[in-house]
Design a protein that fits this description.
There is one protein chain. With 165 residues, this protein is mainly beta. Helix content is 10%, strand content 28%. The chain has one helix and twelve strands, in the order αββββββββββββ. The strands form three sheets. It has a five-stranded antiparallel β-sheet, with no helix packed on it. Strands 6-10-9-7-8 form a five-stranded antiparallel β-sheet, with no helix packed on it. A two-stranded antiparallel ribbon has the order 11-12. A hairpin with a 4-residue loop joins β11 and β12. It starts with 17 loop residues before the first helix and ends with a strand.
Length: 165
């Protein structure tokens, strides 16, 4: 018998092989929810830091609200060094006992320190990350604010091309 939403198994007491049944169901959830991803680091990053992928790169670096180190794609679950693979949480609740958020207020990517978050909205490159649900917990939205991305405009005239970033 299976559940409706994700077609997961129901397991009765005394079922043999329950661990492999649950492992299969966890794989189904991972494939359907996409709350976390595996990321290869391009620098040393501590746990619970915001990360992004620079254009033309495949590795993750610490994000910053400055329109060049954005958009942040989530927060690292564990720390790592160059070329380590770490998990990055994109959506849902994430807790760090070192945080002291004002509950119910938005949390943004910090413009001052790479990888950090703030509850003070940045003037430039403002990227909403989530809402503080407790002093030590944020519910990540998973949304990327496209207004925080740098814009490039190209003006072409008969004699030259001008690009402004």
């Amino acid at each position: 018998m299976a559940t409706d939403k994700y077609d997961l198994h129901t397991i009765d007491y005394s079922v043999q092989g329950w661990d492999s049944i649950l492992a299969t169901d966890m794989e189904k959830l991972d494939a359907g929810i996409h709350s976390r991803l595996l990321a290869t680091l391009g620098e040393t990053v501590a746990a619970k830091k915001a990360v992004y992928i620079p254009r033309g790169n495949t590795k993750y670096f610490k994000a910053q609200a400055n329109q060049s180190r954005q958009p942040a794609l989530g927060l690292t679950i564990e720390s790592g060094v160059l070329d380590d693979q770490v998990r990055v949480q994109r959506v849902g609740p994430i807790t760090d006992t070192g945080w002291s958020w004002v509950t119910g207020k938005p949390v943004y990517l910090s413009p001052d320190t790479p990888g950090e978050l703030t509850q003070v909205p940045p003037a430039v490159g403002k990227q909403f990350m989530g809402i503080a649900s407790a002093s030590d917990t944020i519910i990540l939205s998973g949304a990327i604010d496209l207004n925080a991305l740098p814009t490039t405009t190209t003006t072409t005239t008969s004699s030259s091309t001008t690009t402004t970033s």
